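Follow-up to my post from last week.
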Amino acid sequence: MEQGEKAATNNASDGEAVRVMRLRADAKRPISVNLAEGIALSHMLMRFVGAAGKA
Amino acid sequence: MSGPAFDELLRRLSEAGVDFVLIGGLAVNAWGVVRGTKDVDVVAASNQENLERLAAVAVAAGGHVQAGEAPLGSAPSIAAALRAGQQVAIETELGRLDVVQGLEGVPSYEGLRSRASEAEVLGVSVAVCSVRDLREMKRATGRTCDLADLEDLDAAGS
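User reply:
Got it. Predicted complex:
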């Protein structure tokens, strides 16, 4: 494997490890907190998509 | 539409005394997998009074159900659609509300409610389906996005 490919693989596995760590941390929070964050994220994404559609 | 307001929609349903349990993407959020979703999915108690309360909230939020080319926008017609349909999508000014009842793989309201947890949204309590029920519904549906949610719930240890 070339050095560049190795670095890319390492970055991907590091990214996945961080993602899983974050998921585990979020799962420990109260469901009200997670729900509020999910709703806020959904609103933001829908506004973004709406704005992109109008652009 | 001024923009989605899922929290306000949930608050109005709860304050109107609608019996429902949150499922779908927002339930996935609640159990620790925070991702975007396009609608509010609920299983509602199927008695007529409850469906009429739900329909009244939807109409007050400018809701309508698309039935062929004609939108149903009155409370009686939306309540009738809810009584007839296993999955009814109500477009409101606060966002889309998907009401699911009696679909294969989706437990009854009573079963879901008995195992649900309470979340607070804008000062009101909202029932969120248990993570076990959520997993079983995702497994039964089996779409790619549902399987991805299952993987993330596993990774989260939920």
